[in-house]
Specification:
Elements (H helix, E strand, L loop, with lengths): L1 E3 L5 E3 L2 H19 L3 H9 L5 H8 L6 E3 L22 E8 L2 E8 L10 H17 L3 E5 L10 H17 L5 E5 L2 E3 L4 H5 L2 E5 L4 E3 L3 H8 L5 H5 L1 H8 L4 E3 L2 H13 L25 H4 L10 H8 L5 E4 L7 E8 L2 E8 L10 H16 L4 E7 L6 H5 L2 H14 L4 E10 H6 L9 E4 L4 E3 L3 H8 L1 H6 L3 H16 L4 H4 L5 E2 L5 H12 L17
Parallel strand pairs: 5-6, 6-7, 7-9, 8-10, 9-11, 14-15, 15-16, 16-17, 16-18, 17-19
Antiparallel strand pairs: 1-2, 3-4, 4-5, 12-13, 13-14
Length: 530
C-alpha cells in the first residue's frame, strides 16, 4: 500500500516512513538534550538552571510550544562549520501562565555561551513579531555572552533588529527581561527598553563595559558584581526593578507580575474574586498616620490597610525609597499606587523619585491600570546637587506622565502637600479625576513656619519678643490658609473623608471611573522632558 511520507514522497509499506519518524524523534531528543551532559553539569555547577528548566518554571506544565527547534546557523570559518547545534543557542516559543498566552525566548548558555549570531537573532525576531501580532506578553530569559564574535557584523545587526522590535512593542504588550547570567555591551540595551527587569544575585550582571575595560581606561578595579550585579542595579542605578537570591524565586515572581498585567494595551488586567469586603473599615489608619507633619511613619502599612488582603507587589523597592510604586488589587481589580514614603528623606521628591514614579505612571497608563496617588510630600529636595543634576527636567517627567495619563486617576492627601510637589503629584489642577483628603491634610505653598518667616518677616524682626511673635504668626497662617477644609471650600478637593472609610471610597470611585474615556490631541507623539 502506498503511504505519503513527511517529505511528500510516496513509499511502499510503512518501514521507510517509520524510519523517518524515528529519525525525527532522535533529532528532537538531541535538540532537547542539548550539547552534552557535561555542559549541563557545568551550568548547574554555576548555580544556574538550563534554558529549558527555566521555561518549565515559567510556563504552565505541558503548555510550551517550541518554534524553530531545528534551526541551525549557516556561518563558516573559525571552526563554526563543524559546530552546528540545533536551536543555535536560543529556545523560542509560546505557552501559558495561569492559562493566558505568553511568548518566551531563553538563551542556552551551553551552546556558544548563549552568544547571538545571525540565525539566533532571526529566531528572536520571529518570536517578538509573533508576540506583537498575537497581542501577548513577551518574556526574555537572558543568559548570553553578547554578540557571536565569529559572525562579525551580522551578529551586531541582529541586536539592532531586537532593539527595533522592543521599541515597536513598547506600550503595546508587556515586555519582561529576566537576567539570569551575564549581559554586556550593546546587549544590555534590550532589557533597558523593556517594561520590567528581574535579576538574580551573584549569577547575573549587566554593564556596557566590563571590569577589565574600566580598569584599562580609568584605573578603577572592581568585580563584575560590584560593577553591574543585581544589588547595584536594584539599589543604585535603578536599572533592575526586582532582585532575588535564586532563579526559582525570581521566575515565580515573574509569574505573579504577569497575573497583574493585561495581555496587551487593548485589554485590562484580569480581575479576581476576593473575600476582602469592599466596605471594610480601616480603623488602624487612625494610629498609623501621626497628625504632626514632622513625624515619620511607614506608608507601606497604609497601603496594606487599603488593598485586598494587604497584598501588593512593589516596583523598584530598593531604589528611590522616598517614593513607593506598587501594583495591587482593590475589590479584585488591579490598581497602580504611587505614594510618598515619609520614612525616607521625609517623603520629598528628588531626581530619582521623580524618574521612578514617572516611568511607573507611564506603564500604568499604557496598560489600562488605574492610578491611586497617596500624598504626604513636603516638597522637592533642595540642594546644589539636585539643581545641577537637573531636578527641574526630572521633576517635569513626573508632571508630564501624570498630565498625559488617560486612565482613572484618584489622589488622596493624607497629611501635608506643599508647593510644586503637591501640584506634580496628580493634583486636581493637572487632571486627577477625583481628589480626596483626610482631616489631617495641610495643602499650602510651604509649611507654616517657612511661610510665616517670609510673610511676617518685618513684624517678627521688629517685635520685642520675636519668638513669641513668630509663634503667633505661624498659628495665624495655619488658621487662615492651612486648615483642613481650605482646599475643599475652593473646590480643589472633592471631599474630606474619614480615614477609616478610605478603602470604601476609593473602590466606589474606581467603579464609577471604570468606563472613563479620554481623547488626547491628534499628534504623532509628545516630546517629554529628558
Amino acid at each position: 500500500m502506498a503511504v505519503a511520507t513527511a517529505s511528500g514522497l510516496t513509499e511502499q509499506g510503512t518501514g521507510d516512513g517509520g524510519g523517518r519518524v524515528a529519525e525525527l524523534h532522535a533529532i528532537r531528543e538531541q535538540a532537547l538534550r542539548g550539547p552534552s551532559d557535561r555542559a549541563t553539569e557545568a551550568q548547574h555547577a554555576k548555580g544556574k538552571l538550563t534554558a529549558r528548566e527555566r521555561i518549565a518554571l515559567l510556563l504552565d506544565e505541558g503548555s510550551f510550544h517550541e518554534v524553530e527547534q531545528l534551526r541551525r546557523h549557516r556561518a563558516t570559518g573559525f571552526g563554526l562549520e563543524g559546530k552546528k547545534p540545533y536551536t543555535d543557542g536560543v529556545i523560542t516559543g509560546w505557552g501559558t501562565v495561569d492559562g493566558r498566552t505568553v511568548f518566551v525566548y531563553a538563551h542556552d548558555f551551553r551552546i556558544f555561551g548563549g552568544a547571538l549570531g545571525e540565525a539566533h537573532a532571526t529566531k528572536i525576531h520571529k518570536i517578538m513579531d509573533m508576540a506583537i501580532s498575537a497581542g501577548a506578553p513577551l518574556v526574555s530569559l537572558n543568559d548570553g555572552a553578547g554578540a557571536r564574535i565569529q559572525e562579525g557584523v551580522s551578529a551586531l545587526a541582529g541586536y539592532g533588529g531586537i532593539f527595533q522590535r522592543n521599541t515597536r512593542a513598547s506600550g503595546v504588550i508587556p515586555q519582561i527581561s529576566v537576567m539570569l547570567g551575564p549581559c554586556a555591551g550593546g546587549a544590555a540595551y534590550s532589557p533597558a527598553l523593556t517594561d520590567f527587569v528581574f535579576m538574580v544575585r551573584e549569577t547575573s550582571q549587566m554593564f556596557i563595559t566590563g571590569p577589565d575595560v574600566v580598569k584599562a581606561v580609568t584605573g578603577e578595579e572592581i568585580t563584575q558584581n560590584g560593577l553591574g550585579g543585581a544589588d547595584v542595579h536594584a539599589e543604585t542605578s535603578g536599572v533592575a526593578h526586582f532582585a532575588y537570591d535564586d532563579e526559582e524565586t525570581c521566575i515565580a515572581e515573574v509569574r505573579y507580575l504577569l497575573s497583574l498585567l493585561p495581555q496587551n494595551n487593548r485589554q485590562s488586567p484580569p480581575p479576581v474574586t476576593t473575600d476582602d469586603p469592599a466596605d471594610r473599615r480601616g480603623e488602624g489608619l487612625y494610629d498609623l498616620v501621626p497628625a504632626e507633619g514632622n513625624r515619620p511613619y511607614d506608608m507601606h502599612k497604609v497601603i496594606e490597610e487599603l488593598v485586598d488582603d494587604g497584598d501588593y507587589l512593589e516596583i523598584h523597592e530598593r531604589w528611590a525609597r522616598n517614593i513607593i510604586c506598587a501594583l495591587a488589587r482593590m475589590d479584585g481589580q488591579v490598581v497602580g499606587i504611587v505614594a510618598n514614603q515619609p520614612q525616607a528623606l521625609a517623603g520629598v521628591l528628588d531626581i530619582e523619585a521623580s524618574e521612578k514614579a514617572a516611568r511607573f505612571v507611564q506603564m500604568c497608563d499604557a496598560f489600562n491600570i488605574p492610578i491611586i496617588t497617596l500624598l504626604d510630600v513636603p516638597g522637592f529636595l533642595p540642594g546644589v546637587d539636585q539643581e545641577h543634576g537637573g531636578i527641574i527636567r526630572h521633576g517635569a517627567k513626573l508632571l508630564y506622565a501624570y498630565c498625559n495619563a488617560t486612565v482613572p486617576r484618584i489622589s488622596l492627601i493624607l497629611r501635608k502637600a506643599y508647593g510644586g510637589a503637591y501640584i506634580v503629584m496628580d493634583s486636581q489642577s493637572i487632571g486627577a479625576d477625583l481628589t480626596y483628603a483626610w482631616p489631617t491634610n495641610e495643602i499650602a505653598v510651604m509649611g507654616a513656619e517657612g511661610a510665616a518667616n517670609v510673610i511676617f518677616r518685618r513684624q517678627i524682626a521688629e517685635a520685642q519678643d520675636p519668638e513669641a511673635m513668630r509663634t503667633r504668626m505661624v498659628k495665624e497662617y495655619k488658621t487662615e490658609l492651612m486648615h483642613p477644609y481650605y482646599a475643599a471650600e475652593r473646590g480643589l478637593v472633592d471631599d474630606v473623608i474619614d480615614p477609616a472609610e478610605t478603602r470604601r471610597v476609593l473602590i466606589r470611585s474606581l467603579a464609577m471611573l471604570c468606563s472613563k474615556h479620554a481623547d488626547l490631541p491628534s499628534r504623532k507623539h509628545g516630546n517629554p522632558p529628558q
